[in-house]
Amino acid sequence: MTQTVAESREAQRAIPPEIIVVAGCLIALITFGPRAAAGLFQIPMTETFGWGRDVFSLAIAVQNLLWGLGQPFAGAIADKFGAVRVICIGALLYAAGLVVMAYATSAGLLNLGAGIMIGFGLSGCSFNLVLGAFGKLLPERWRPLAFGAGTAAGSFGQFLFPPIGNALIQSFGFEMALLVFAASVLLVLPLSLALATRGAAATTAVNAGPSQSIAQALAEAFRHPSYVFLVLGFFTCGFQLAFVTAHMPAYLKDTGLPVWVGGWTLAVIGLANAVGSLYSGFLSSRMSKRWLLSFIYLGRSVAIAAFILLPATPVTAIAFGITIGLLWLSTVPPTSALVMLMFGTRYMAMLYGFAFFSHQVGGFLGVWLGGILYESMGSYTFVWWLSVALGIASAIINLPIKERPVERPVPQPA
Predict the structure, then answer these.
(1) pTM for the full model?
(2) pLDDT one-digit tens code per residue, 22-37
(3) Smallest Cα–Cα separation from 46: which of 260, 263, 249, 184?
(4) What's the CATH superfamily of 215-407?
(5) How far apart (Å, rounded) are the C-alpha atoms in residues 65 and 77?
(6) 181 near 34, Cβ under 8 Å?
(7) Confidence check: pLDDT of 11 > 70
(8) I need a labelling partner for 223 at 20 to 30 A (CA). Which of 105, 246, 260, 298 fits?
Protein backbone atom coordinates (compact mmCIF):
# COMPACT_ATOMS: atom_id res chain seq x y z
CA MET A 1 0.00 0.00 0.00
CA THR A 2 2.85 2.38 0.89
CA GLN A 3 4.55 1.74 -2.44
CA THR A 4 1.33 2.46 -4.33
CA VAL A 5 0.89 5.80 -2.55
CA ALA A 6 4.53 6.71 -3.26
CA GLU A 7 4.14 5.88 -6.93
CA SER A 8 0.94 7.97 -7.06
CA ARG A 9 2.73 10.96 -5.53
CA GLU A 10 5.62 10.54 -7.94
CA ALA A 11 3.23 10.50 -10.88
CA GLN A 12 1.60 13.69 -9.62
CA ARG A 13 4.99 15.39 -9.37
CA ALA A 14 6.03 14.30 -12.85
CA ILE A 15 7.04 17.26 -15.01
CA PRO A 16 5.44 17.37 -18.47
CA PRO A 17 7.75 16.34 -21.33
CA GLU A 18 7.42 19.77 -22.93
CA ILE A 19 8.86 21.47 -19.83
CA ILE A 20 11.70 18.96 -19.60
CA VAL A 21 12.65 19.54 -23.24
CA VAL A 22 12.47 23.35 -22.98
CA ALA A 23 14.53 23.48 -19.77
CA GLY A 24 17.09 21.02 -21.13
CA CYS A 25 17.40 22.98 -24.37
CA LEU A 26 17.97 26.23 -22.47
CA ILE A 27 20.69 24.57 -20.39
CA ALA A 28 22.36 23.31 -23.58
CA LEU A 29 22.12 26.78 -25.16
CA ILE A 30 23.61 28.60 -22.17
CA THR A 31 26.46 26.17 -21.48
CA PHE A 32 27.53 25.76 -25.12
CA GLY A 33 27.56 29.48 -25.91
CA PRO A 34 30.64 30.77 -24.01
CA ARG A 35 32.64 27.70 -24.96
CA ALA A 36 31.78 28.20 -28.65
CA ALA A 37 32.97 31.81 -28.47
CA ALA A 38 36.40 30.91 -27.03
CA GLY A 39 38.21 31.67 -30.28
CA LEU A 40 37.22 35.35 -30.01
CA PHE A 41 39.47 35.75 -26.97
CA GLN A 42 42.64 34.39 -28.60
CA ILE A 43 43.79 37.56 -30.36
CA PRO A 44 43.01 40.09 -27.57
CA MET A 45 44.54 37.91 -24.85
CA THR A 46 47.68 36.99 -26.77
CA GLU A 47 48.22 40.61 -27.82
CA THR A 48 47.62 41.93 -24.28
CA PHE A 49 49.99 39.52 -22.54
CA GLY A 50 52.47 38.82 -25.34
CA TRP A 51 51.69 35.10 -25.50
CA GLY A 52 52.11 32.92 -28.58
CA ARG A 53 49.04 31.23 -29.97
CA ASP A 54 50.36 27.95 -28.64
CA VAL A 55 49.81 29.23 -25.06
CA PHE A 56 46.14 30.03 -25.61
CA SER A 57 45.69 26.86 -27.67
CA LEU A 58 47.07 24.67 -24.88
CA ALA A 59 44.55 26.06 -22.38
CA ILE A 60 41.60 25.43 -24.71
CA ALA A 61 43.03 22.02 -25.62
CA VAL A 62 43.21 21.09 -21.92
CA GLN A 63 39.61 22.28 -21.59
CA ASN A 64 38.51 19.93 -24.35
CA LEU A 65 40.45 17.01 -22.90
CA LEU A 66 39.18 17.45 -19.34
CA TRP A 67 35.63 17.99 -20.58
CA GLY A 68 35.90 14.59 -22.20
CA LEU A 69 37.76 12.98 -19.30
CA GLY A 70 35.19 14.11 -16.76
CA GLN A 71 32.19 13.22 -18.91
CA PRO A 72 32.02 9.44 -18.20
CA PHE A 73 32.33 10.05 -14.45
CA ALA A 74 29.73 12.83 -14.51
CA GLY A 75 27.49 10.56 -16.56
CA ALA A 76 27.93 7.65 -14.16
CA ILE A 77 27.06 9.86 -11.17
CA ALA A 78 24.04 11.25 -13.02
CA ASP A 79 22.94 7.71 -13.93
CA LYS A 80 23.06 6.70 -10.28
CA PHE A 81 21.90 9.82 -8.40
CA GLY A 82 20.15 11.96 -11.01
CA ALA A 83 21.32 14.82 -13.20
CA VAL A 84 20.43 17.87 -11.10
CA ARG A 85 23.30 17.77 -8.59
CA VAL A 86 25.85 17.12 -11.33
CA ILE A 87 24.55 19.94 -13.53
CA CYS A 88 24.53 22.45 -10.66
CA ILE A 89 28.09 21.66 -9.56
CA GLY A 90 29.26 21.76 -13.16
CA ALA A 91 27.63 25.16 -13.76
CA LEU A 92 29.23 26.67 -10.64
CA LEU A 93 32.67 25.38 -11.66
CA TYR A 94 32.15 26.61 -15.24
CA ALA A 95 31.19 30.12 -14.09
CA ALA A 96 34.15 30.27 -11.69
CA GLY A 97 36.48 29.20 -14.49
CA LEU A 98 35.28 32.05 -16.69
CA VAL A 99 35.99 34.50 -13.84
CA VAL A 100 39.52 33.13 -13.36
CA MET A 101 40.06 33.33 -17.14
CA ALA A 102 38.97 37.00 -17.08
CA TYR A 103 41.69 37.87 -14.56
CA ALA A 104 44.39 35.47 -15.84
CA THR A 105 47.65 37.35 -16.30
CA SER A 106 49.84 34.28 -16.68
CA ALA A 107 49.76 31.07 -18.68
CA GLY A 108 49.30 29.11 -15.45
CA LEU A 109 46.15 31.01 -14.47
CA LEU A 110 44.84 30.74 -18.02
CA ASN A 111 45.29 26.96 -17.89
CA LEU A 112 43.59 26.83 -14.48
CA GLY A 113 40.54 28.87 -15.50
CA ALA A 114 40.04 28.26 -19.23
CA GLY A 115 41.51 24.77 -19.11
CA ILE A 116 40.91 22.87 -15.86
CA MET A 117 37.92 24.62 -14.30
CA ILE A 118 35.88 25.19 -17.45
CA GLY A 119 36.81 21.74 -18.75
CA PHE A 120 35.55 19.89 -15.69
CA GLY A 121 32.63 22.30 -15.39
CA LEU A 122 31.47 21.50 -18.92
CA SER A 123 31.65 17.78 -18.17
CA GLY A 124 29.01 18.29 -15.52
CA CYS A 125 26.57 20.68 -17.17
CA SER A 126 26.86 20.48 -20.96
CA PHE A 127 24.35 19.14 -23.46
CA ASN A 128 25.69 15.60 -22.98
CA LEU A 129 24.15 15.45 -19.50
CA VAL A 130 20.96 16.94 -20.94
CA LEU A 131 20.76 14.22 -23.59
CA GLY A 132 21.29 11.55 -20.95
CA ALA A 133 18.46 13.06 -18.89
CA PHE A 134 16.22 13.16 -21.96
CA GLY A 135 16.86 9.46 -22.52
CA LYS A 136 15.66 8.66 -19.00
CA LEU A 137 12.92 11.22 -18.40
CA LEU A 138 11.10 11.32 -21.72
CA PRO A 139 8.74 8.76 -23.25
CA GLU A 140 10.31 6.81 -26.10
CA ARG A 141 8.36 8.64 -28.81
CA TRP A 142 9.85 11.96 -27.64
CA ARG A 143 13.49 10.89 -27.61
CA PRO A 144 14.73 11.13 -31.24
CA LEU A 145 13.42 14.66 -31.76
CA ALA A 146 14.48 15.69 -28.23
CA PHE A 147 18.05 14.56 -28.92
CA GLY A 148 18.05 16.73 -32.04
CA ALA A 149 16.43 19.65 -30.20
CA GLY A 150 18.95 19.51 -27.34
CA THR A 151 21.85 19.47 -29.77
CA ALA A 152 20.28 22.24 -31.86
CA ALA A 153 19.81 24.36 -28.75
CA GLY A 154 23.52 24.12 -28.01
CA SER A 155 24.13 25.22 -31.57
CA PHE A 156 21.80 28.18 -31.16
CA GLY A 157 23.96 29.18 -28.21
CA GLN A 158 26.86 29.25 -30.66
CA PHE A 159 24.81 31.58 -32.86
CA LEU A 160 23.97 33.97 -30.01
CA PHE A 161 27.15 34.17 -27.98
CA PRO A 162 29.93 34.97 -30.53
CA PRO A 163 28.31 38.20 -31.82
CA ILE A 164 27.47 39.22 -28.24
CA GLY A 165 31.00 38.37 -27.13
CA ASN A 166 32.49 40.26 -30.07
CA ALA A 167 30.42 43.35 -29.22
CA LEU A 168 31.34 43.14 -25.53
CA ILE A 169 35.05 42.75 -26.32
CA GLN A 170 35.03 45.73 -28.69
CA SER A 171 33.06 47.94 -26.25
CA PHE A 172 34.25 46.88 -22.79
CA GLY A 173 37.25 44.57 -23.21
CA PHE A 174 37.63 40.80 -23.01
CA GLU A 175 37.55 40.79 -19.19
CA MET A 176 34.01 42.19 -19.01
CA ALA A 177 32.87 39.86 -21.78
CA LEU A 178 34.04 36.84 -19.77
CA LEU A 179 32.33 38.11 -16.61
CA VAL A 180 29.03 38.56 -18.46
CA PHE A 181 29.37 35.01 -19.79
CA ALA A 182 30.00 33.75 -16.24
CA ALA A 183 26.82 35.40 -14.98
CA SER A 184 24.81 33.85 -17.80
CA VAL A 185 26.00 30.34 -16.87
CA LEU A 186 24.47 30.72 -13.39
CA LEU A 187 21.00 30.68 -15.01
CA VAL A 188 21.53 26.94 -15.39
CA LEU A 189 20.96 26.41 -11.66
CA PRO A 190 17.19 27.07 -11.57
CA LEU A 191 16.64 25.50 -15.00
CA SER A 192 18.17 22.21 -13.85
CA LEU A 193 15.30 21.61 -11.42
CA ALA A 194 13.07 20.60 -14.33
CA LEU A 195 15.29 17.54 -14.85
CA ALA A 196 14.74 16.26 -11.30
CA THR A 197 11.42 14.42 -11.55
CA ARG A 198 10.91 11.11 -13.28
CA GLY A 199 7.56 10.11 -14.69
CA ALA A 200 6.30 6.55 -14.44
CA ALA A 201 7.24 5.73 -18.03
CA ALA A 202 10.77 6.98 -17.55
CA THR A 203 11.23 5.08 -14.31
CA THR A 204 10.14 1.88 -16.01
CA ALA A 205 12.56 2.51 -18.87
CA VAL A 206 15.47 3.10 -16.52
CA ASN A 207 14.83 -0.06 -14.56
CA ALA A 208 14.15 -2.23 -17.62
CA GLY A 209 16.83 -4.63 -18.85
CA PRO A 210 19.39 -6.75 -17.07
CA SER A 211 20.81 -5.81 -13.70
CA GLN A 212 24.40 -4.72 -14.35
CA SER A 213 27.13 -3.04 -12.39
CA ILE A 214 29.01 -0.14 -13.94
CA ALA A 215 32.03 -2.38 -14.52
CA GLN A 216 29.89 -5.00 -16.28
CA ALA A 217 28.28 -2.36 -18.48
CA LEU A 218 31.67 -0.97 -19.50
CA ALA A 219 33.11 -4.43 -20.20
CA GLU A 220 30.11 -5.28 -22.36
CA ALA A 221 30.38 -2.02 -24.31
CA PHE A 222 34.10 -2.21 -25.06
CA ARG A 223 33.83 -5.85 -26.15
CA HIS A 224 31.21 -4.80 -28.68
CA PRO A 225 32.92 -3.90 -32.02
CA SER A 226 30.15 -1.55 -33.14
CA TYR A 227 30.55 0.57 -30.00
CA VAL A 228 34.32 0.71 -30.52
CA PHE A 229 33.84 1.83 -34.15
CA LEU A 230 31.41 4.50 -32.99
CA VAL A 231 33.86 5.76 -30.35
CA LEU A 232 36.75 5.87 -32.83
CA GLY A 233 34.72 7.71 -35.44
CA PHE A 234 33.64 10.34 -32.91
CA PHE A 235 37.31 11.32 -32.47
CA THR A 236 37.21 13.12 -35.81
CA CYS A 237 34.14 15.10 -34.87
CA GLY A 238 35.95 16.58 -31.88
CA PHE A 239 39.14 17.29 -33.84
CA GLN A 240 37.35 19.24 -36.55
CA LEU A 241 34.95 21.16 -34.31
CA ALA A 242 37.49 22.22 -31.70
CA PHE A 243 40.04 23.33 -34.30
CA VAL A 244 37.52 25.49 -36.15
CA THR A 245 36.05 26.93 -32.92
CA ALA A 246 39.44 27.92 -31.48
CA HIS A 247 41.31 28.98 -34.61
CA MET A 248 38.81 30.17 -37.22
CA PRO A 249 38.75 33.85 -36.10
CA ALA A 250 42.56 33.97 -36.04
CA TYR A 251 42.81 32.16 -39.41
CA LEU A 252 40.44 34.62 -41.06
CA LYS A 253 42.28 37.59 -39.52
CA ASP A 254 45.55 36.21 -40.92
CA THR A 255 44.02 36.28 -44.41
CA GLY A 256 43.36 40.00 -44.04
CA LEU A 257 39.65 39.83 -43.29
CA PRO A 258 38.11 42.13 -40.65
CA VAL A 259 37.45 40.84 -37.13
CA TRP A 260 33.67 40.75 -37.56
CA VAL A 261 33.98 38.01 -40.20
CA GLY A 262 35.37 35.53 -37.67
CA GLY A 263 32.64 36.27 -35.14
CA TRP A 264 29.84 35.97 -37.66
CA THR A 265 31.33 32.82 -39.19
CA LEU A 266 31.13 31.13 -35.78
CA ALA A 267 27.62 32.54 -35.37
CA VAL A 268 26.28 31.18 -38.65
CA ILE A 269 27.85 27.81 -37.85
CA GLY A 270 25.69 27.78 -34.73
CA LEU A 271 22.55 28.87 -36.56
CA ALA A 272 23.00 26.34 -39.37
CA ASN A 273 23.83 23.67 -36.80
CA ALA A 274 20.49 24.22 -35.11
CA VAL A 275 18.83 23.28 -38.40
CA GLY A 276 21.25 20.42 -39.11
CA SER A 277 20.91 18.90 -35.65
CA LEU A 278 17.11 18.97 -35.75
CA TYR A 279 17.08 17.40 -39.19
CA SER A 280 19.64 14.82 -38.09
CA GLY A 281 17.42 13.92 -35.13
CA PHE A 282 14.51 13.55 -37.57
CA LEU A 283 16.55 11.36 -39.94
CA SER A 284 17.95 9.23 -37.09
CA SER A 285 14.55 7.61 -36.63
CA ARG A 286 13.94 7.17 -40.36
CA MET A 287 17.17 5.90 -41.95
CA SER A 288 20.32 3.93 -41.17
CA LYS A 289 22.23 5.77 -38.47
CA ARG A 290 25.63 4.44 -39.60
CA TRP A 291 25.05 5.65 -43.15
CA LEU A 292 23.89 9.01 -41.83
CA LEU A 293 27.13 9.34 -39.83
CA SER A 294 29.24 8.36 -42.84
CA PHE A 295 27.54 10.95 -45.03
CA ILE A 296 28.08 13.65 -42.39
CA TYR A 297 31.81 12.95 -42.01
CA LEU A 298 32.36 12.75 -45.76
CA GLY A 299 30.39 15.97 -46.28
CA ARG A 300 32.60 17.77 -43.77
CA SER A 301 35.75 16.72 -45.63
CA VAL A 302 34.37 18.03 -48.90
CA ALA A 303 33.34 21.34 -47.28
CA ILE A 304 36.74 21.88 -45.62
CA ALA A 305 38.66 21.05 -48.79
CA ALA A 306 36.57 23.49 -50.83
CA PHE A 307 37.00 26.23 -48.22
CA ILE A 308 40.80 26.09 -48.05
CA LEU A 309 41.16 25.84 -51.84
CA LEU A 310 39.00 28.92 -52.50
CA PRO A 311 40.18 32.50 -51.84
CA ALA A 312 39.27 33.75 -48.36
CA THR A 313 36.53 36.38 -48.56
CA PRO A 314 33.61 37.28 -46.31
CA VAL A 315 31.32 35.41 -48.72
CA THR A 316 33.37 32.19 -48.74
CA ALA A 317 33.82 32.35 -44.94
CA ILE A 318 30.10 32.76 -44.27
CA ALA A 319 29.23 30.14 -46.91
CA PHE A 320 31.64 27.71 -45.23
CA GLY A 321 30.08 28.52 -41.86
CA ILE A 322 26.63 27.65 -43.16
CA THR A 323 27.80 24.44 -44.85
CA ILE A 324 29.93 23.10 -42.01
CA GLY A 325 27.27 24.24 -39.54
CA LEU A 326 24.67 21.97 -41.11
CA LEU A 327 27.08 19.08 -40.40
CA TRP A 328 28.51 20.43 -37.12
CA LEU A 329 26.80 18.56 -34.27
CA SER A 330 24.52 16.56 -36.51
CA THR A 331 26.66 13.57 -35.52
CA VAL A 332 25.29 13.70 -31.96
CA PRO A 333 21.67 12.50 -32.50
CA PRO A 334 22.64 9.34 -34.45
CA THR A 335 25.59 8.65 -32.12
CA SER A 336 23.50 8.95 -28.94
CA ALA A 337 20.67 7.00 -30.58
CA LEU A 338 23.06 4.17 -31.47
CA VAL A 339 24.37 4.00 -27.89
CA MET A 340 20.81 3.78 -26.59
CA LEU A 341 19.82 1.22 -29.25
CA MET A 342 22.77 -1.04 -28.47
CA PHE A 343 22.73 -0.87 -24.66
CA GLY A 344 19.46 0.71 -23.52
CA THR A 345 18.98 3.73 -21.26
CA ARG A 346 20.28 2.38 -17.93
CA TYR A 347 23.89 3.53 -18.40
CA MET A 348 23.37 5.77 -21.41
CA ALA A 349 24.93 8.92 -19.90
CA MET A 350 28.08 7.01 -18.93
CA LEU A 351 28.47 5.07 -22.19
CA TYR A 352 27.82 8.15 -24.29
CA GLY A 353 30.32 9.87 -21.99
CA PHE A 354 33.07 7.47 -23.06
CA ALA A 355 32.23 8.10 -26.71
CA PHE A 356 32.39 11.81 -25.95
CA PHE A 357 35.80 11.34 -24.29
CA SER A 358 37.09 10.12 -27.66
CA HIS A 359 35.47 13.21 -29.20
CA GLN A 360 37.32 15.45 -26.76
CA VAL A 361 40.68 13.72 -27.22
CA GLY A 362 40.23 14.67 -30.85
CA GLY A 363 39.29 18.18 -29.72
CA PHE A 364 42.44 18.44 -27.60
CA LEU A 365 44.64 17.49 -30.56
CA GLY A 366 42.76 19.74 -32.98
CA VAL A 367 43.21 22.85 -30.84
CA TRP A 368 46.72 22.04 -29.60
CA LEU A 369 48.14 21.02 -32.98
CA GLY A 370 46.58 24.11 -34.52
CA GLY A 371 48.57 26.33 -32.16
CA ILE A 372 51.79 24.33 -32.20
CA LEU A 373 51.94 23.92 -35.98
CA TYR A 374 50.99 27.55 -36.56
CA GLU A 375 53.93 28.67 -34.44
CA SER A 376 56.33 26.27 -36.22
CA MET A 377 54.99 26.52 -39.80
CA GLY A 378 53.40 29.95 -39.83
CA SER A 379 50.05 28.67 -41.13
CA TYR A 380 47.16 26.31 -40.43
CA THR A 381 47.34 24.51 -43.80
CA PHE A 382 48.57 21.14 -42.52
CA VAL A 383 45.86 20.94 -39.84
CA TRP A 384 43.14 21.79 -42.37
CA TRP A 385 44.22 18.90 -44.61
CA LEU A 386 44.55 16.58 -41.63
CA SER A 387 40.90 17.40 -40.85
CA VAL A 388 39.95 16.37 -44.38
CA ALA A 389 41.78 13.04 -44.06
CA LEU A 390 40.25 12.26 -40.67
CA GLY A 391 36.76 12.96 -42.01
CA ILE A 392 37.23 10.42 -44.79
CA ALA A 393 38.59 7.86 -42.30
CA SER A 394 35.57 8.30 -40.00
CA ALA A 395 33.17 7.96 -42.91
CA ILE A 396 34.69 4.52 -43.53
CA ILE A 397 34.94 3.48 -39.85
CA ASN A 398 31.21 3.93 -39.23
CA LEU A 399 30.10 1.62 -42.06
CA PRO A 400 30.65 -1.74 -40.25
CA ILE A 401 28.47 -0.70 -37.26
CA LYS A 402 25.59 -3.11 -36.60
CA GLU A 403 22.40 -1.28 -35.68
CA ARG A 404 20.81 -3.66 -33.21
CA PRO A 405 20.77 -4.29 -29.46
CA VAL A 406 23.75 -6.08 -27.99
CA GLU A 407 23.13 -9.83 -27.63
CA ARG A 408 22.74 -10.84 -24.01
CA PRO A 409 22.24 -14.37 -22.66
CA VAL A 410 18.64 -15.09 -21.77
CA PRO A 411 18.25 -16.15 -18.09
CA GLN A 412 17.22 -19.81 -17.86
CA PRO A 413 14.59 -20.90 -15.31
CA ALA A 414 15.94 -22.83 -12.33
Answers:
(1) 0.73
(2) 998 999 999 988 988 8
(3) 249
(4) MFS general substrate transporter like domains (1.20.1250.20)
(5) 19
(6) yes
(7) no
(8) 298
